[in-house]
Amino acid sequence: MENNIHVSKHQFSPPGWTYNPSAWSQRIPLLIIAFVGMVTAGYLSLYQFKIIDDVWEPFFGNGSRKILNSPVSTLLPVPDAALGAFSYLLDIVAGIIGGVYRWKTMPWIVIVFGLFVGPFGAISILLVVLQPVMFNAWCTFCLISATCSVIMIGPAMDELLASLQFISKSKRAGYSVWKAFWGNKDVVNNMQ
């Protein structure tokens, strides 16, 4: 039970799905990956904020310093690694909210989670491509952070798709999209 909404066991997974994308077994690995990404980006931001003097680079010589001091990483008033760490924190918060039926009881948070994960993953891919192309350098911890972002995209988009299917099905059944988006208990209970 979630939010006093009755959900029967046969509706654990979205209709036509063989698994539940909101299950903790699906979300906990994402939360762990987001935590690793947050710690990694946080470490890099300590260097960009000049809290630590150097960043450890095990494979690419001075590549990390070159990337972290590049014009791209300083385009905004806040270092890009700090924005990455904050983004991962938002992923963690949005990933924790709601129970195993959130794909239908809380579509709003699933959509927010998808909006946090998807674009950040795309930006991470772009930043990785820019490393060798623009700066002829690589940054190990930047690559680890980007990998975390990319790994999260597929599972987060699965859960997003389940919520969008629920909203679409609710609309076809004559319910308000707005009420379905907010997980209105009448909509959820009648859509079982």
Please tell me about this protein's structure:
The chain has 192 residues and is an all-alpha fold. The chain has a single domain, classed as VKOR domain (de novo design (two linked rop proteins)). Helices cover 65% and strands 0% of the residues. The protein is built from eight helices and no strands. The chain has helices at 24-48, 63-68, 80-96, 102-105, 107-135, 140-172, 177-181, 185-190. The longest helix is centred in the C-terminal third of the chain and has 33 residues, at 140-172. The two termini are 14 Å apart.
Brief descriptors of the model:
mainly alpha, 192 residues, de novo design (two linked rop proteins), elongated
Give the CA-based shape: elongated
Rg over alpha carbons? 20 Å
CATH architecture: Up-down Bundle
CATH class: Mainly Alpha
Summing up helix and strand content along with how strands pair, one would put the structural category as: mainly alpha
Instruction: Classify the helix fraction into a percent range.
Output: 55-70%
Strand content: under 5%
Strand tally: 0
Mean pLDDT: 92
How many angstroms separate the termini? 14 Å
Number of helices: 8
Q: How is the biggest beta sheet arranged?
A: none
Task: Summarize the topology.
Elements: H1 24-48, H2 63-68, H3 80-96, H4 102-105, H5 107-135, H6 140-172, H7 177-181, H8 185-190
Short summary of the structure?
With 192 residues, the protein is mainly α. The protein is 65% helix and 0% strand.
